[in-house]
Structures are given as C-alpha cells and as structure tokens.
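Moderator note: this is an archived Q&A kept for reference. The question asked for a predicted structure of one protein chain; the sequence and the answer are reproduced below.
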Amino acid sequence: MLSSQAIIDALKHRGLRVTPQRYAVYANLLARTDHPTVEQLLVDLNHDGPVSSQATVYNSLQALREVGLVREVLLEEGVSRYDANTAPHHHFRCRCCGHIEDIPWGTFANLRQAALRPGLTPDSFEVTVQGVCDRCTSAPTESTTP
C-alpha cells in the first residue's frame, strides 16, 4: 500500500487534480485485490457515513482510468470491475463463489499468437480463466439423500 503522500504524488504526476474523492477511490483500490465494482467501492467508501455518490465514484474511476492509474476489467458479461494493478496480468474467476485472483503474466507465455489466421495482428491480450477455486473445491457439499 502506498503512503498518503505517494498517492497524492501519483495523482499529481499524472496531471490529475487531487480531490478527496479521487484520493479515496484510488487509495481504496490500492488496498484491495478483489477487483471491485462501482457498487462495492461505494459501499466501502460510505461505510462510516455518506461521502461519495455513485456519479462521483464513476467520474473518479474514469479520470483514474484515463491517466493509466486504474484499469477496467470485464471478467463477466455486463459487469465492470476495477483494478489498481495496471501491470500486465491475467485473471482467474471462480464460477461458484465469484472469487477473483490475479494470474502472473508469464503463466501464458507459450500462447501462440502466431497461430492466429493471417491478417490478424494482436496488440495485446488478456486471459480470464473460469473455474472453481480451492476453497469451493474443498467445501463440503450438502447431500440430497435423506
């Protein structure tokens, strides 16, 4: 986690005006690894009393995204999540509990982009692995027999 001054410096270095809302949104994202939605951020930010509106959180995220401090991650259809880890990486999403975990970039180093059909030139790629996490795999299941 960055210090308060480091967060302020990062915002200023990217040309953003430091507002309490931008600071709070960015600091919150830096402190977590669960790739929250706007709604989850809003609940967190307003935990001790109303501080931010949904529009303010959206606007702060847009500003942070535009300068490269935050990235929007689409791990499931129609749900935008946000990540302050802007270094290249992939994701694992548990289909049972929704847990999201970062996967190191090099995990898919052998992915053969050259195997794409001629005429396709990739700029970048990101892999989202869907499956079941170890917590859900080891969780006891309820028996349906009497």
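Archived answer notes: The helical segments are 4-13, 20-30, 38-45, 54-66, 134-138.
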